Amino acid sequence: MIGQRSLAALALFALTGSLAGGAGAAEKTLAIGVLGPLSGGAASYGVELVRGAEIKVDEINRAGGLRVGGDVYKIKLISYDHKAQAAEAATATNKLVFQDKVKYIMGNAVGATCNAAQTITEPNKVMFSFVCWGTSNLSPEKPYSFRSMLSQWELAEPFYRWVKETHPAIKRVAAISPNDTSGKDTNTAVVKALKALGFEVAADEYYERGTKDFYPILTKILAQKPDMIDVAAAPAGEAGLILKQAMELGFKGAKGWTAGTNPFTIISVAGPEAAEGVWSPCNINVKGDHVSAAVRKFGETYEKQYGEVPGVIAVANYAAFDVFTQAMQRAGSVDTDKVLEVMTRERFETVWGPLVIGGKETYGIDRQFLYPLVISEVRGGKVVDVAQVVPAALRKK
Amino acid sequence: MPIELFVQALLNGFGLAVVYILVALGLTLIFSILEIINFAHGEFYMLGGFVTYYAFGVGGLPYLATLVLAVLAVGAAGILAERLVFRHLRGKTLNAFIVSLGLLWVLQASAQLSFGVLDKSVPSAIGGVVRVAGLVVSRERLMVILISAALIGGLYAFLKLTRTGQAMRAMAQDADAAALQGVDIELVSMLGFGIGCALAGAAGALLAPVFAVSPTMGALPVIKAFIIIIVGGMGSLPGAVLGGLLLGAVEGVGTLFMSSAAVNMLGFLMVIAILLVRPRGLLGAP
Known about the structure:
Strand order of the largest sheet of chain A: 8-7-9-10-11-15-16
CATH class of chain B: Mainly Alpha
Low-confidence stretches of chain A: 6-23
Helix content of chain A: 40-55%
Shape of chain A: globular
Largest sheet of chain A: 7 strands, mixed
Distance between the termini of chain A: 74 Å
CATH architecture of chain B: Orthogonal Bundle
Oligomer: heterodimer
Order of helices and strands of chain B: HHHHEEHHHHHHH
Number of strands of chain A: 16
Structural class of chain A: alpha/beta
Number of domains of chain B: 1
Strand content of chain A: 15-25%
Largest sheet of chain B: 2 strands, antiparallel
């Protein structure tokens, strides 16, 4: 006969066993890195990358974590500031990969810093998604790298095709960008699109990041009498100063911002008068008519949390987290090779809607997130959507 | 090339040079009196910018009153820095250089934590442009040029005509002899440092509405200031003015012919040339 002590021990054992069995999936931590310029002239990019990531990570963690295979992961974000300098980006990436042991870096901006980071991420099979605009940032030699935002190669042609169709009086266009990888690649794409569409290139100029006084370079540009100035790859702070100073020097023509990731910011820097009429094919107006309910909701959450309206970079990084976490779940693993295989064969549902990964005709490999772009115009201090166009690469898919 | 383009380029260069001369004058004044090279000088420029942002941009204080406030506030910050940090390093150039680097990072990091990292736009103090014979300059920049010139003239008059100014010049020549003549070294050092920083604060306040403000805005002006005082002559106030005008002319006109990267090199090439050919600078003491 079983004694009372034995019964108690059995009950205790059973209870402990049931609790252990009920815990089910093991809870782990998945550290994900975010790189970006978090200070200096390009800080607006880095800040949006981190904030977009934070909102998605909060959603996942509040819902109990990310279930992958038999495990549940709490996501921990680790971010570093590289100040838009390649050397600092290499140092930060070293820290993320070797000290913090991350296998995913989600978010980076400024092309030269991506090149620097990739010298570490690629050999170590670290999945790296970014909004950098350097053409060489995507290539068959860099299979673990993805661009989560449309770049100049997807934007310039449809943007200038729209300019030509809707404003035929514009014949001469001047492009100005920072003097680095992103800037040079952006101006190259803009100039290529301009020439292919029959425009004259009035100027193809570069300035050093951190420049505040644009009078000297604008004096040179305005002497060429452009009909339109495209502040191309300039970040919001510098783009705003260029437009303000161009207006002071008497420029009254059209204004474009190919890499205009957040026209709301340019209005505050340039002032409503100088920003009036700026066209941007790159941003996403989270309050506009062409966005999904999911983007609108993201915009409301962002504005409530940070007191500012998000630009496309924040949305892009939020969407990137969507894609990668879905890929991990479908792969049943956080192993980057298994996740990569899923990413290259499947489509994903994101805030952009159905997301296609393409770009092979430009980069030699399908690693570019593709989605329809919206051209916006600044009118009366507000951002108004004026057209929706589809990049050529997406039309072919 | 049309002559108007050349003259416009010169005007562009001089327009900003006068403000960098203010920064350089402050730096060279501190060096001449205390023999301290203050690498944190750009952060006092930045403080002037943020005083302007909060007082004028956010608070709505009239711009000229804001300028006076910025000068006084940053001057006071300079006096505090001298009393707490630099007074024991007078004449110890290397130690002061290292300490000033530390102060630079402390002030910059504190500004990032306090003010945030993003650029902050300051409304224009005065709108509109002035056009004369094909040349264009904004009214705002014209005001900056005139006020900077007035401050430079005021500094010159202060140093020439007032007892305190003369005491500063005496200290710059020979501190021991000045002390023997009854100059209060502690007081003059403190005032000299304060005035030097106040000039940087004034420059920051003048350019805040033109360029926006950020915690790292002091980096470029202090580099320009160093170029100016090396070319003009360390410790020479007329040298700083000449060096600034030369730098402004070279960079303004250089942009017409070269890329921005090449233009940025010109100032450093001037420094190398001066150090090789005339190390004391154009108007520095032998």
